[in-house]
Structure formats: structure tokens, C-alpha cells
Amino acid sequence: MLEFDGLVKSYGDNRVLQGVGFTVAPGQMFGFCGSNGAGKTTTMRIAMGLARADAGEVRWRGQALDEASRQRIGYMPEERGLYPKMKVAQQLAYFARLHGLSSADAAVAAQHWTGRLGLADRRDEQVQKLSLGNQQRVQLAAALVGRPEVLILDEPFSGLDPVGVDSLAEALLEQCRAGVPVVFSSHQLDLVERLCDAVGILARGTIVASGTVPELRAAEGGRQLRVVVPDAPTGWAGAVPGVRVVSEQRGDTLLELDAGTDDQAVLAAALRTGRVTHFGWREPTLVELFREAVAVPPAVAA
Amino acid sequence: MTAAPSTAARIRLVAGREITTRARDKGFLISSAVIVLLVLGVMVFQLLSGGSGSSTAIGTVDGGAQVEQALVRSGEQVGTEVTVTEYADTAAARQAVTDGDVDAVLVGAAGEDPQVVVESSRDGAASAIAETAVGALSVARQLGEQGVSLTPPPAISYDVLDPSTEDRGQAVVVALLGVVVLYALYILFGQFVAQGVVEEKSSRVVELLLSTMKPWQLLAGKILGLGLLGLVQIVLIAVVGVTGALALDVVDLPGQLIGTVLVVIGWFLLGYALYASVFATAASLVSRQEDLPSVLTPTTLLLVVGFIVSIQAAQDPGSTLATVTSFVPGMSPLVMPVRIAAGEAAGWEIAVSVVIMLLAIALVVRIGGRVYAGALLRTGSKVKLREALRAERV
């Protein structure tokens, strides 16, 4: 397990993290979401030893991360950085060696990841001569080349075209299947929803929501039921007990049910009006969950 | 999975990268070639200008062995080597002067009416030698007519009271040359260290590096790697220089030459350790190559002053200025080798100077390491020294 436990961090008067905690299981892909400046990068930097937490710690396999165990983490910093004048393959082999691979293994790993990420014919080029997209791939390869046990990636998808996103996603899923816990931050919530087993939403210095996407949906209290009844008169659902009409437009009705209200009673009421062309729970998207989660509660806002 | 590399292994990796990257660098290769050529050039200049002195070529018409001998001997008296060429007639001899084959022609030296042919001026070494030779020949002939036979004057033996002075002069020249090389290498490798630090900061690769190692390990690898390269370079220059000097025979005492060269190499190590640490620390405060000069200038100034003082010390190694500055850390690596070569530095003085230097290095490494660790991850505007010391260290 990769555990982030009670991280607290202040820069001067700015209390960035106020007890951030979440857990990522081996083989789990964890999407780390939050508004700009919420503290995602700070959290990841604390894990990598690049910033010091005022309190709390990050553990891997029950042990607080230290210099030795960080060698086994593949990291992609938010601020991309590579040696601009070093050749791609050489550079990757160097990072692999810093992660403890032997000279021969490092060369093989560099060869493997450049091939895997579509950089095969760029191996002998200086990084500064590559396009931004390709530099991004090299950056990712630098995180993967050291045979990491854990991956911590800060905005790995930003700046990639759809093809690049797919090849990166495929590479990450492969790592997950091999049992590597992957934590990545992203603003592309559709991508997070598609890829991640679990999601954590960071707001106001703490994790305001975390879990699998279905869990988040379940936690989101008022689930909405969408019923389309083209022939029904306006206000048809108002009479059903425990039901609140959210919106109604030419039979396309959005309803919120109180806890304990039987959705089958709603269906029966709908059928009484005539034809029912659609009846189903409307799944909130992650974007909606996110908006809900990061919205400042009125009590705090006051 | 894989084991984390040890501290030593990490430092070796960083050092190895510095060496392989720099050894391929064009700037490095060109500057190395320039320094080697400079050293060889100085030796060739020594060979051409000094040592056996000047030489001149004089032609003769109606000369003979006696005239040739007289010319060579009168040349020896003024320290000039004379080569004599006999011409068949005056016309050929005049042509030789016009063509510049000879500096002067002496016609009919043994006769009643000797004549000297020169191209433009009668005030030359060649004409003076010719005049002296004619005089000597005339005296010898007249004495011979009077029945006096000349025996050559007895050879004079010299009793030199302080033979070291002149030889020391040569050692001082070698030391000075060494100091020029030191100065060039400090600037060159100091720049390498500084540029490397800023490159890592400006490209932000430093964050990735620091996720696998401590700042001091990165710094140590960088300084050791480039230091090793610098050492190889100065040893190479020394080998080329000493071999060249011995081959061209421009030094009188090879033992003293090698001793001086070893002293210079020793001081290279001390000076490099200090300057590389200071340059790295200063460079860690900025994030752009353009900002480098502003933080490096104070240190560079110290280096320039040390260099100027060392040149002054070569002329007057016993001066108060040279004595005092040979203890000042940062200046001592440039001034002390000259004083040692001049035989002006006592053993205890050298020891004290080295100890002061070592203490200074320890201090700079300690404070510099803190500044470096504090400033490395703060990119953007220039970091103030005090801020860097107060910043959290990773």
C-alpha cells in the first residue's frame, strides 16, 4: 500500500495542506484531482522528498519513504525537466542508473521505453531538438525507465495529443496490471474517470472526496432519476410521494427521490400517463462530482 | 527489484556524466588545445630568443681560414654566433648581401684596403664584428712582421658565489607559466561548474535529480568529476610542457623544472576545490545563464587580483605584497607557487598557507552546501544568500 497520511504543510501564512490522506493499493490507478493551487503538486513533492511536510508522512509497504525507497519511485515533476543537450537514449540510461540499474540493464531499459513510447528514431537526438510532445514522452520514459515499484506523476497528460494520451494511458495501465500503484494528477476529468480505479479530490487543503467513481456517486446524496414520458401532462410526477421534480420539459423529467422512496412506484406512475421512452438513474459525471466536492460549503464561505 | 545505489555510486554516476559530457564539448576541446599551444609557444619563443644568443652570417672575398677564424672569434666576444661564407668575387658577394643571404661581406680583410659591404646601415652587429676582425688581423700581422708570435689568452675560470639566482629565474618563469595555466583552468572549470549548476536549474531537471539523490551528492559528483577532468588536463599540459622543454633543451635543471611543475599541480587541486565550491554556490542562486556574471564577478575579481599579484611576485618574490597574499585563501594558489619557485617561501610558510587554504575549503563547502541545497529548487528570480541559508533543505 502507498499511504499518504495526515500531510500538513504551510508556506508562511498559507496553509496549503491541512491533513491530506489517502491510500493507493498495488495495481491501483489513483486519479488525484483538485483545483489549481489546491496542493496536489505539494503533496507529490512531499512524497518525493522535494518538500518537507510539517506533519504527517508518506508510507510504502508500511515504511515511511526515505532516500533508499524513493529510488524505487518513478516520478514525473510538474515542471518538466531534462538535460536539453543530452541525447535521448543516453539521458534515459543515466536516469535508469540513478535508480540503481546496471549499465547494461539501463541501456536495455532506455532502448525498450524509447521504442514503447514511439521515440525509436529519436534516440540519438538531443532533447532540446524534439517537439514538445516528444519531450513529454521522454519525460515519461524517464519516470518509467528505472523499473519503478510506484509511479507518482504530476499532470502526465497535459500537452499530449489524443494519440499520445492513448499510448501513455496504455503504458500506465500496463504498469498497473504489473502491480504498480500509480498516482497521477490531472485536470482532464473525463480521462481520470475512464482510467482510474480510484479518485481523490483535494480542496481547501484536505481530501474532500475519495474512493472509486461509483462510490463517489453513491456518496453523492440526491441521485437523479430521468424519466421521459412524451404524452404525460405537466406535473405528472408531483403527486408521487417522496419525489421532487428538478426539471420538466415536454415530458423529459428529472426527479430527485427521498431516501426510501421506491423507484418502481415512480415507474408505475409514469406508465399510467402513457408511453415511457426512457427510465433510468442519471449517473453524475466526475465533472459534476468534482464541482460539488470543491464547492465551498456556505458555512465555510461565510 | 533493483537495489538503491550507494552514495559513492551516485557520486560516481554524476561525476561520470560530467566528464563524458564535457570531454565531448567543443569549447573544452578548443580551450585545451589553446593552452597546450600556448605552453609550446612559450618554449619555442624561449628557444628562438634566448639561450645561445643571436647569430649572424658574414661573407668574405679573398678571405681564407685566418679571416674566418678572426670573424668567428670576434663574434664570440660579443656573444654572436658567426657563420662565414666565402665568395669568388665582389659582384657575387654584393648580390648575396642584396638577397639577404648574409648580413655583411668583408672584402680583402688581410690586404691594405679592406672593405665592408652592407645593405643599408653600417651600424649592425655584422659590421662591428667585421671591423673587430680586421683590427685583430691587422694587429696580428704587424706583430708577426715584428717577429712576435701570439699565444691565445688564458681561459678564465668563473667562481660564481650564488649559482641559484639565475637558475631560480628559470624556475620562476616556469612557475609563472604554471600560474597562467592555473588561472586559465580556474576560470574555465569554475565556469563549467557554474554553467552546469545553472543548466540543471534552468532546465528544471534538478527536481528529477533530487528525487533520487541529496543535493550534496549532486554537488560533490559535479565538482569531483570536473576536477578529475581538470587534473587530467593540467597533467597533460605538464607532460607536454616538460617533455617539450627537455626535448628542446630550453631548461638547465630538469629536476627543478619538474619540482616546480609538481608544486603547481598541487596548488591546482587546492585552488580548484575552493573556486569550484564558491562558483557552484554562487551559481545555485540564479536560474538563468544570463544572471551568472552578476553572482560570479566578486569571485572572479579575487582571481584576477591574485593573478596580477603573482606576476608582480615573479619580479619581486620577497615583497610584502607577495608575502601577505601568499597566505590569503584564493590568492595563495596563484602567488605561493611563484614564491616557492623563487626560493623565497620557508617550509613553515608553505605549511601555514596550505592549512589556511584547507580551512577555507572546509568552510566554503559547509556554508556553500547549505546555500546550494536551499537555493536549488527555488527557480525564477535570483535567490538572496540569506534566503537560501534560511530556506528549508531537502
TrEMBL record, chain A:
Residues 2-229 form the ABC transporter domain. GO terms for molecular function: ATP binding; ATP hydrolysis activity. One of its GO terms (cellular component) is plasma membrane. It is a peripheral membrane protein. It holds the Pfam family DrrA1-3_C. Keywords: Antibiotic resistance, ATP-binding, Nucleotide-binding, Transport. It comes from the Bacteria. It is found in: Cell membrane. GO terms for biological process: response to antibiotic. Belongs to the ABC transporter superfamily. PANTHER family: ABC TRANSPORTER ATP-BINDING PROTEIN (PTHR42711), ABC TRANSPORTER ATP-BINDING PROTEIN NATA (PTHR42711:SF5). This is ABC-2 type transport system ATP-binding protein. It comes from Klenkia soli.
Automatic annotation (TrEMBL), chain B:
GO terms for cellular component: plasma membrane. The keyword Cell membrane applies. The chain crosses the membrane at residues 27-48, 171-194, 223-248, 260-283, 295-314, 345-365. Residues 26-365 form the ABC-2 type transporter transmembrane domain. GO terms for molecular function: ABC-type transporter activity. Pfam families: ABC2_membrane_3 (PF12698). It is a multi-pass membrane protein. It comes from the Bacteria. It is found in: Cell membrane. Keywords: Cell membrane, Membrane, Transmembrane, Transmembrane helix. The keyword Transmembrane applies. This is ABC-2 type transport system permease protein. It comes from Klenkia soli.
